[in-house]
Design brief:
This protein has 337 residues and is an alpha+beta fold. The protein has one domain (4-165, 201-279): Transferase(Phosphotransferase), domain 1 (Orthogonal Bundle), CATH 1.10.510. It has 11 helices and 10 strands. It has helices at residues 7-19, 78-90, 123-128, 133-151, 166-180, 185-196, 238-242, 264-273, 281-307, 314-320, 323-336, and strands at residues 24-30, 38-45, 51-58, 98-101, 111-115, 163-164, 205-207, 216-219, 222-226, 233-235. Helix 5 packs antiparallel against helix 6 (185-196).
């Protein structure tokens, strides 16, 4: 079994191969966030002096691609994710700078190294820390502008990505529900509602896929970074426009429907002002319903990992218990439309 204390020397050798002999890696620490990928923060010391904080992101050794997770059906592998992050950084979309993507000779597995951005990532602190009150007020507009720049990234700057349209989302949910083995009447009703009321397709753009509170970095000035690009794909822009407003990602601040920090309208206006195509709020609300179903199906499949004995994780069990809560959110949304 791979030992984590071997990572430091392997990382140092990977830097030596690319940037010259004499690098050292210190303060290597695994980050707690991220259940399906491993993330480590560390400092690299250059041969001629200088120190930089960086992030290693990689697939766990022996990782198995789980098609029961709806996000895995259109997500990117680590080399593609590295190329996505580099393209988004070049577009000014608050992505970290990419340092390198690992190859087989590095012995790091499917991995890449990027800069570590400073700031707060925990939603509870972002939404409640008095020191971040000014930043919270700026977030809806800053996130709208950043998303418009992200959606404008030219395809020629991106790696080969999967295209995942609305019908692909609906088909994925149908396949997962049909294969679950237990009735989920609320989700079944909601899926039929989504199939009946689907809006017209739009030309696909580059979509982050998981653009929400919990995947951003905030400092006292506002938005400092966007994280977790592994479900980047080509698809409908509304997947990103609606996902931050799904109730789960407000973290208890239902009085502020956009990401727990403000009104949707401020976010929409900033998106359009930064060059994003005009927004129809009713279409966004449809995708918010779809996003709530997506989160519910994710809770269901994550919980099944625990109940099946595949993963003895309290975190998985707790998330699995949220299925009924999400089912109610889903039905309440439909009832309000």
């Amino acid at each position: 079994m791979e030992q984590e204390n071997d990572l430091g020397p392997r990382l140092a050798r990977a830097f030596d191969r690319r940037f010259g002999v004499g690098h050292a890696v210190e303060r290597l620490e695994r980050l707690s966030a991220g259940a399906s990928r491993e993330s480590y923060i560390f400092e690299v010391l250059a041969p001629k002096g200088g120190r930089q904080s960086l992030i290693l992101k990689r697939d766990p050794p022996g990782a198995v691609h789980d098609e029961d997770d709806p996000d895995n059906r259109f997500g990117a592998d680590r080399p593609a994710e590295a190329a996505i992050v580099a393209a988004a950084h070049a577009a000014g979309a608050h992505a970290p700078a990419m340092i390198f993507c690992a190859d087989d000779d590095d012995g790091l597995g499917a991995a890449f190294v990027m800069e570590a951005l400073e700031g707060e990532t925990l939603p509870q602190k972002i939404l409640r820390d008095p020191a971040l009150a000014g930043a919270r007020a700026r977030l809806p507009a800053e996130m709208g502008a950043a998303l418009a720049r992200l959606h404008a990234v030219p395809r020629r700057e991106l790696p080969r990505l999967r295209t995942f349209r609305l019908d692909d989302h609906l088909a994925a949910f149908r396949a997962i529900l049909d294969g679950y083995g237990q009735p989920q009447p609320g989700f079944e009703y909601g899926l039929r509602w989504l199939e009946k009321h689907r809006p017209p397709d739009e030309p696909p753009v580059f979509a982050h896929g998981d653009f929400r509170m919990g995947n951003i970095i905030v400092d006292t000035q506002g938005l400092a970074g966007i994280l977790d690009w592994e479900v980047g794909h080509l698809g409908d822009r509304h997947v990103d426009l609606a996902w931050p407003s799904v109730r789960a990602w407000r973290f208890g601040r239902d009085d502020r429907p956009f990401a727990g920090v403000g009104p949707r309208e401020t976010f929409f206006e900033a998106y359009e002002a930064a060059g994003g195509a005009p927004i129809d709020p009713e279409i966004v609300r449809y995708w918010e319903v779809l996003g709530t179903l997506r989160w519910g199906v994710m809770c269901m499949t994550i919980g099944q990992r625990f109940t099946s004995g595949r993963e003895a994780s309290v975190e998985k069990a707790v998330i699995g218990r949220r299925v009924a809560e999400t089912e109610l959110d889903f039905l309440d949304l439909i009832d309000a439309l």
